[in-house]
Design brief:
about 400 residues; alpha/beta; Rossmann fold; 8-stranded mixed β-sheet; about 10% strand; globular
Length: about 400
Amino acid sequence: MLLLHFALLTSQIASAFMATNPPASSVLHTTPRATTKTRIPVPMSSSSDAQGDDRRGFLTKALGGALFTGIVANGISVQGPSPYQPSVGSLNGKLVVITGGNTGLGLESGKRLAAAGATVVLTSRNPAKGERAVNSVKDYVFDATGTKIDNVYTLPLDLCDLESVKAFPGILKNSDAFKKEQKIDIILNNAGVMAVPDLQITKDGFEKTFQSNYLGHFALTAGLIPLLNPIESRIVSVSSMAYLIASKGLDMTNLNGELEYKPWDAYGRSKLENILFTKELQKRADAAGKKITAVALHPGAVRTDLPRYIIGEDKFVSMQDGTPSTEDIVKLLPAFYFTKSVERGANSQIFLSAFQGGDDIKGKFFINMKENNLLPAALDMDKAKELWKASEDMSGVKYDL
């Protein structure tokens, strides 16, 4: 959003400059330089006019060039690298569980990980949407590789219902996705909500953003830990640079909006919590000698279903349910330029879920498939420990590490 505002502001400044300082070629001199009989005309050489015009023209071109270069460079930076596809067969025998897998980044991740050979479990609150997502993944893999696959599944999960979360590991173990000797190789904590406009409380008594983005995943991961592959496994959590909204640090007294609820503050806190969870999980896994790699990432500003609460749920059309109107597309053109496609936005989580990134990425934070430094609020291990304890108490789960 900051990039979009910056781009629009820059273009407005440029437009204002061009309006008050038009190019020399467009200026029409229709009056003489001396217009009264009492004033003695001052001789002006043609070379002076030309030099002035040249300077104005140069300044206009320089500003225009700088603006164009800045917008293009910014667009490239926003867009990130081309879509990353793990090589076919590189994930054969691997099992990945993806939360929020029926649309957006979760669905795109499922497609490309399945194309690399992984068995994919897409979680969804809506069984019909889950089945459509499964068919979408199968179609993608067939188009990409010419191979028909049957190792894609959907299972029910509602992160805002801890009863559903705690039941999920048993449902997975008894599903066709989980073979007799199967283990989970990758947990991709992808689902989330953004900028819920008002304070909404889940059936468990927690603020919706907090439970959807963080607490539900905390409890789910605890339940799936015993099912992880002991040889090597990864827990990938989709966070965001929006953690900077909470750059002063996590306020443990306002996790549920007890003191004050603001949509973007709640979102920023949840993304900071994702990072602190990743770091504390890695610390505990290492201390227990578990071969678990926990990583977090920022996908970028991506064109997904996340803005449903900004647009309004009554007007929002899911990416899986339809396409925006021509009028809506015209309105959103600036946002389309300054946001990522889902294909590019999914890069980091696919890259990390495909066991890429090197040997020294434990507890790290990634943007565009590269490690990125974090600010102190996201490195506060005392706060991470405090959050972990509070999360166990609130969710009623304990980690078996």
